[in-house]
Amino acid sequence: MSFQKQIAQSLVWRGLYFASILLMNIFLSRYFEAENAGWIFYLCNNFSFLLILVGLTIENGVNYYASRNEINRNHLAWFALVWTVMVAGIVFIGLWFYFGRYKDTSFLTRSQYLYYAICYITGIQLTNFFTVLFYSKKNFFLPNFIMVLLNLSVILLIPKQVGTIHTDSALIIKYYFAFFIITGGCLALAFIIKNKSWQSKALPKFEQLQWLVKYAFMALAANIIFFLVYRVDYWFVQRLCTADELGNYIQVSKLAQMLLIIPTIISSVVFPHTAGGMHRTEMKDNILRIGRITTVLYAALFVVVFLVGKWVFPFVFGQSYNLMYTPFLLLIPGVWALSNLFILSAYFGGINQVRVNINGAALGLVVILAGDFLFIRLFGLPAAAIVSSIGYLVNFGYSFYNMKREHAISISEYWMINKDDIKWLRATLQR
User: Fold this and answer.
1) Which sequence spans correspond to the domains of the chain?
2) How would you classify residue 367: left for phi > 0, otherwise alpha for psi between -120 and 50, otherwise beta?
3) 1: Cβ–Cβ under 8 A, 6 or more apart, which residues?
C-alpha cells in the first residue's frame, strides 16, 4: 500500500474516531459545565502523566521494532498484556499507600480515585500498545472501526441517564472511565483473534526485551518533557485562576488537540515508513508538502474563528464556556507549530534520532515554564495561550533547524503552496 493510500485510509478511519471523541467531549462539557467538566479533564491529565512515568512509554519501542519486523508481533502482544498488568499493579499499590497517608477529601474518596485511575491507565496503556501494533502492519481500519463503535455506544448510553428523574452524575462519570478499559480490552482481543496470537504464546527474547527497554528510556525523556510542554500550563491555570477559567482553558486545549488529529494521523504513517527504510529525501518532500497545506488550513481557521468564534464556542459547549475565544485565537499559531512538529518528531523517531525531539522539547519547556510563572498570575488565560504558542514555535524551530542540517531546505518552503501540492492532496483524498 502506497504512502498516500495509507494516509487516505488513516484519515478516514482515525478521523471518524476523533469525531466521535469530539461528540463525547461536547456532551460532557454541556452536561457538567466548565467548572465541573474541568476537573474531570484535569484528572485525566494527571493520570496521563502518571502513565508516562510508570509505563515508560514502552509502546514507542514496540512501535519501532514492530515496524521494522525485528520482533514478532504476537510476542509483542503478549508482552503488552503482561506489561499492562504490571503497570496497573504498580499504580494501584502506589495510590493505595498515597491515600493511606492523605485522608479522603470532599472532592474525591480513595475508592473513587483508585477506580478512575485504574480504568483510565489500564485502558489507555492497552489502547496505546495495540493501536501501534495494528498500525505497524499498516492496518488503520480495524482498530479505529472498533473505537468508533465503542464511542458511539457510550454517546448513546450516557444521555439516557441524563434528564431522568434519578439522574446520577457519579454514575455517568463511572461510565466514562469504564469506557477506557473496555476500549483497550476490545482492541487487545481483536488483535489476538485477527493474528491468531494464541498459536505463538511467548514473550520476546531477553535480548529483545533489552532493546525495548533501551528504546523506551531514550524516548521517555522526550515524552515526559513534551507532555509538560503542552500540558504544564494546566497546573499553573489550576493554581492561579478560578475553576471556571480552568474549565474554559482545558476546553481550549482539548480543541487544540483536536486540531492535531490530522498531523497525528499522518505521523502514525510517517513513523513506520521512515523506520521501515523509506528514502529520507522522499520523506522530506512529503513532510514539506504536508507543511504547506497545513499552513493554508490554519490561516483559514484563524480567519473563521476570528469572525464567528465568540458566539460559536458558547453555542456548542454551553454558556459557561464564554472565555474561550481570545485564548483559542492566541493559541492557533502554536498549534500550527505543533502540527508540523508532530510530523518532524515522527521522522526523527523513525531514523532513531530521538535526541532531536528531546532537545527541542526541553527548549520549549524552559520557555513555557518561565513564561507561565511570570505572566499567568498577572494576565490570566491570554498569557497562558501566548506563552504556550511561543514555546511550541521554539520547539518546532529547533526540529526544523535539524532537518535543515540534513537537507538543503528553507523555512519559506512552509509558506508557498504550489500546484503539485494541490494535485498531491487531491490524489490522496481520492484514494
Assistant:
1) 3-429
2) alpha
3) 9, 138
